[in-house]
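Notes from the 1:1 (GR / supervisor)

We went over the backlog. Supervisor wanted to see one worked example end to end before approving the batch request, so GR pasted a single chain during the call. The sequence is below; no edits were made to it. Supervisor asked that the structure be written out right there so they could see what the output format looks like.
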Amino acid sequence: MIRWCFILGIVAAFTLQHTVKAVAQEPQPNLIKEEMIAMNDAFTNLIQALILNKPDIIEGPFLKVEEARKKVEEAIKKREKIILPKNNSKFKEFMKIDDEYHVELEKMLAAAKGRNMKIVKLQTHKLLNFCVYCHARFR
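Structure output shown during the call:
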């Protein structure tokens, strides 16, 4: 009986050690990438809304973008390291562009709430220009 308890204890210790190592080796989440994935999903929906003339379906997916952005802002406040794929030394420039982008995004969402598809289309064009510029600069 003592021998079985000893063997069971050894197995448990090795299992626990492996689990702790696995958790320690998990990479930190890439918050910028999470925001970009949410943005991609929101833009796919936005294009469908434009094609189908359904402004009421635009806002929903952008709520996930806002949640992701808040995580980035919290990480910055905590001074956590956030790495851009390219030109990481220009992170402040990236954040300035991101802030400008979100100002334009709010204008587009307001137009969608007001069912003004002409403004939604204009703002979508502006937003996509931001995406292209930012990806050329930082991706």
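Supervisor's comment: The CA atoms of residues 132 and 139 lie 10 Å apart.
Batch request approved.
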